[in-house]
Amino acid sequence: MNNTYRAQVVTPAEWEAARLRLLAKEQDLTRAREALAAQRRRMPWLKVDQEYSFDGPNGAARLLDLFEGRRHLLLYRAFFEPGVDGWPDHACVGCSLMADQVAHLAHLHARDTTLAFASRAPQPDIERMKALMGWAMPWYTITDSFDADFGVAEWYGTNAFIRDGDNIYRTYFINDREHEPMGATLGSLDFTALGRQEDWEDSPDGYPQVPRYSWLKRHDEYGPTGRAAHPATTESADHAHHD
């Protein structure tokens, strides 16, 4: 160990007292994060009127198709394309870190949420890189002005969307340091319009909620579709969006 710094060595009782003092601050931080997430669930919605186009592993896809039938879409703009460090073998270092820390997608699917990546690279390059790195998330090719229109032409970020039938709304956007909780299941859900959908959350009246963790299963126990049983409508939350 480097001898330039050495922490104070204390008795077990002193250590526990110090831990409890710090734990109180940890709990304050948790409550602050919960309050911020509650404000996200009250954000106005912005209707997406343009029909954006992507290439995917199954051919041409609309933004609506990226939901895969679910209610939420978290779409991360990763930098993997000519001119980016690592091309053509790898995405940028930071985007690769993001991809590495994405949790098993079945847990997000159980909360009616799809997480997908998008880049400018052609599909053959994306599929080759995903196989090399062992990544399983859907990854699309941007073919139009989506990245410029949604603030991710020059810097990474995640756009959160919700759909009501075939209507799509942008509900939130994060990048830079605020993006660090993304990837973990619960942290990712906190950025969606409906949140974790648990009954302890401070959400507007009418939002879907179940008892805490009652939806949670092992990732191989959710069933074959991974889709929610309820229809993808948001009539109970109509007050939240602005057309």
Automatic annotation (TrEMBL):
<protein>
    <submittedName>
        <fullName>Dithiol-disulfide oxidoreductase (DUF899 family)</fullName>
    </submittedName>
</protein>
<dbReference type="Pfam" id="PF05988">
    <property type="entry name" value="DUF899"/>
</dbReference>
<dbReference type="InterPro" id="IPR010296">
    <property type="entry name" value="DUF899_thioredox"/>
</dbReference>
<feature type="region of interest" description="Disordered">
    <location>
        <begin position="224"/>
        <end position="243"/>
    </location>
</feature>
